[in-house]
Specification:
It is a single chain. It contains one helix and seven strands. The protein is mainly beta. The chain has one domain. A seven-stranded antiparallel beta sheet has the order 1-2-3-4-5-6-7, with no helix packed on it. The protein is elongated and about 60 Å long. InterPro entries: Beta-barrel_TonB, Beta-barrel_TonB_sf, TonB-dep_rcpt-like. Keywords: Cell outer membrane, Membrane, TonB box, Transmembrane, Transmembrane beta strand, Transport. Its main location: membrane. It is found in: Cell outer membrane.
């Protein structure tokens, strides 16, 4: 009723359906002799409905993240790449839109200022790529620069810093 008052002719209804999920998550890493370490994560999931011939709604596309870290005695720096495949296996029942693939580069660093004090900083999405995360929502209000019904875009480049003190 509320969705209809807001002008949404196809509101989501929270209900279980007979479905099937298959997938795999993989974490790998290797510590080279010396200061280099490589770490990676890969994810794949496929969701289908078993009651009708359709895909499940909001299933993350296959993706992989790989980071290369240089570790010195009191500091480290990491270069991280993330690649996400186009998601075209979408729910027709829920009028789900496909999303394109994308690749991001991020940089992170840590510096142990003294015992129990660490300063961390980073830049996520270094090149400020514009993309749509398949799991982000759709714009449901008429205000702002994003048309109603369009997927909410990525947040763009992000900077952060953190000071950690452990007692």
């Amino acid at each position: 009723m509320i969705a209809d008052m807001n002008g949404d002719p196809t509101p989501l209804r929270w209900d279980n359906v007979d479905s099937r999920l298959i997938g795999d998550d993989m974490d790998v890493g290797y510590d080279f002799d010396g200061p280099l370490r490589i770490d990676g994560v890969a994810n794949y999931v496929r969701g289908t409905r078993r009651d009708i011939d359709d895909n499940l709604y909001r299933i993350a596309p296959p993706n992989v993240t790989v980071g290369l870290t240089f570790e010195a005695s009191i500091w480290s720096v990491t270069v991280e790449g993330r690649a996400v495949v186009k998601q075209s296996k979408v729910s027709a029942t829920d009028s789900e839109a496909t999303t394109g693939g994308y690749a991001l580069l991020s940089l992170y660093g840590d510096w142990q200022v003294k015992d129990n004090v660490t300063l961390s900083a980073g830049v996520e999405n270094v090149f400020d790529e514009v993309y749509q995360d398949h799991l982000s929502g759709y714009n449901r209000n008429g205000f702002g620069g994003i048309p109603v019904g369009e997927r909410i875009p990525s947040s763009g480049r992000g900077l952060f810093s953190r000071l950690s003190v452990v007692k």
